[in-house]
Amino acid sequence: MAYASSPEAQQRELDELRNAVNCAVVLEKAGFRLDRQATAQRSARNLKFRRDSEAIIVNHDGKGWWDPKGDGKGDVFKLVQYLDPSKNLGHVRQELRALIGRSPTLEVVERTKGAADRPRRDPAELWNRRTAPGQGTAAWRYLTEIRGLPDHIVAIAGQQGALKEGPHGTAWFGHRDADGQFTGMEMRGPDYKGFSTGGVGKRLFGFRADGGEAPVTRLVVTEAAIDALSFAALDRFQKGTLYTSTGGGMSPESEANLKRVMMQVAAQPEARLVVAVDNDLQGDRYAGKFAAMARDVGLWSGRISPKGPEEDWNAVLRTRREGMQAGSVPVAPLCRLSEVLGSGAKAQPE
């Protein structure tokens, strides 16, 4: 078949390929297979495909996709280039032409039978059966002794219903949507890190270090719940601040929920967003994404990250704690933290 080279003909072909080629077909051609169990836990509208440790979720009836572990998302053209960044648009068009009209086989990825195959309980049911960590419990000791969180921060999070104690010393951090509905939990412990399966999935962990009486005029977004608690422990400007965590990689639904929360905060006078992400490449990506979302809703935003490369806010907190125990508190970046956030400065600190 000959393909015309006029701009109009090229655009028609792009539209044809975008509508005619299912993203699932592209993934199967690249060696991905459907994870039926994970798909069933999410929704039939979101098909989860795996290739070794990689995962891609197909949505919009095969017309869209997103990477639950990163920022990748888009249409079938972006998918081909995401899987092989060396391909230009001409290479992508050539590959997609051969896939027109094909349907995905939905061949299931082979899984080893074991604990992961047992029926999973509703995370909301598990959450409601648990209580907040108490002083001296395994999760309390993990958070205060290993993670270095102050007792009062852990206690406040528990009192607000944002923190529960799971089995084997794990701490559970509840995620809720913009309407306050529970959707799942981040789980962290000495030997475990993950997010609850089943349910709606990641939205936002959030808590108020000031007791929650004043309206929220300052939204702090971090990448993990322990970072949100750590940042609050370091922060002098707690009044009116909601400390949140995205739990890492975000789905389109999670991003839409965060934008709703931003809109709610933006309705308050002098409202602002503090993007408190890690000092690494992933943090750079999140910072750009969150700043763009804030601009869309008219919310002022600024980024602050730990000074050390690859550091997160819990590492900063533990460094401060060790310095205090040794009799010397590090000068940077902690002494600048409150100054930067309180002054309205937009630049990231040095």
User: Under the CATH scheme, which architecture of the largest domain would be assigned?
Assistant: 3-Layer(aba) Sandwich
Number of helices: 13
Do you know the CATH topology of the largest domain? Answer: Rossmann fold
What global shape is seen? globular
How would you sum up this structure, described in words?
The termini are far apart. The chain has helices at 7-20, 23-29, 36-42, 76-83, 89-97, 123-129, 138-146, 151-159, 225-234, 252-266, 281-297, 313-326, 334-343, and strands at 33-34, 47-51, 54-59, 64-66, 73-74, 163-165, 171-176, 182-189, 192-195, 204-207, 218-222, 241-245, 272-275, 300-303. It is globular. The strands form 2 sheets. Strands 6, 7, 8, 9, 10, 11, 12, 13 and 14 form a 9-stranded mixed beta sheet that branches. The protein has 2 domains: 7-116, DNA Primase, Chain A (Alpha-Beta Complex); 123-343, Rossmann fold (3-Layer(aba) Sandwich). By secondary structure, it is α+β, with helices and mostly antiparallel strands. The longest helix has 17 residues, at 281-297. Residues 330-350 have low confidence and may be disordered. Pfam families: DUF3991, Toprim_2. Residues 141-209 form the DUF3991 domain. This is DUF3991 domain-containing protein.
